[in-house]
Amino acid sequence: MKDKINIIITDDHTLFRKGMVALVSDFGFAGEIKEAGNGAELLALLAGANPLPDVILLDLKMPVMDGVEAHSKIKQLYPDVKVIILTMEDDEQYILHLISEGVNGYLLKNAEPDEVETAIVKVIEKGMYFPENITDIVMKNLAKKEKSEVVFNPGFTEREQEVLVLICKQYTAAEIADELKVSVRTAEGYRQKLLEKSGTKNTVGLIINALKFNWVTLK
User: Fold this and answer.
1) Strands 30-36 and 82-87
2) Which of 65, 92, 95, 97 has its CA 20 to 30 A from that of 130?
3) What is the per-residue pLDDT for 121?
4) Given phi > 0 = left and psi -120 to 50 = alpha, else beta, which region is 191?
């Protein structure tokens, strides 16, 4: 992991934002920390940033430009910048939409400080972080919808299916390799094959589709 991680915290509630700045500043890896009050301010900061931040903590509901629009623009203009959504429990539709659009993680606003620290580290090291209840949120949302979609079968092999289950449990390539007694390169190769066969853009999209189309059963 990098010695110092540069971060932008974006939230329209000043007290919450200042509290997050104070919290993150105490983390040993914290580099330069900037703040913005809405998506428009954030994009203006990014346009003049040199270097770009490593991670953005992004509120969803803000005036002028909300987190959904801001995230879309960030992914177009700065695809390497990691984005962690800050949200409340009733934002399930936003969460699912942003996960499918490639957001790197999300945190509930009542998360413990240790989880905030963990989320930032994992997003830098693994590319994503989602709380353990992500599966529950996805399945709860899918249960509300009529099963009208045609189920797409990517034709995974038995070994690919094993790897997919571990990916859905948020195992890293190294952890998958250890579990299946293969090399990390081989584990990564399986992940890439899963992406290709499923037509998904990233690991998070793969997880969502795996749950959506019942490609896996998590116990």
Assistant:
1) unpaired
2) 65
3) 94
4) alpha
Axis crossing angle, helix 134-143 with helix 203-212, rounded to the nearest 10: 40
Q: Which of 79-83, 141-145, 204-208 has the lowest mean pLDDT?
A: 141-145
CA nearest to 133, candidates 152, 114, 107: 107
Which DSSP symbol is given to 103? Answer: -
In sequence order, the 6+-apart residues with CB closer than 8 A to the CB of 217 are none
**Long-range Cβ contacts of 186-193 (<8 Å, 24+ apart):** 187/163, 190/159, 190/160, 190/163, 191/163, 191/167, 193/160
Question: Is residue 120 pLDDT above 60, yes or no?
Answer: yes
CA dihedral over 159, 215, 97, 59, signed as positive or negative: negative
Residue 128 DSSP SS3: coil
* Domains present along the chain, CATH in parentheses: 5-140 (3.40.50.2300), 148-212 (1.10.10.10)
Side-chain-side CA neighbours of residue 17 (13 Å) = 18
The torsion of the CA quartet 143, 145, 149, 151, rounded to 10 degrees, works out to 0
- Average pLDDT (198-206) is 80
Higher pLDDT, 77 or 97: 77
Question: Has residue 140 got a pLDDT over 90?
Answer: no
- Of the candidates 116, 127, 100, the residue with the CA atom closest to the CA atom of residue 25: 116
* Angle (deg, nearest 10), helices 67-77 and 39-47: 20
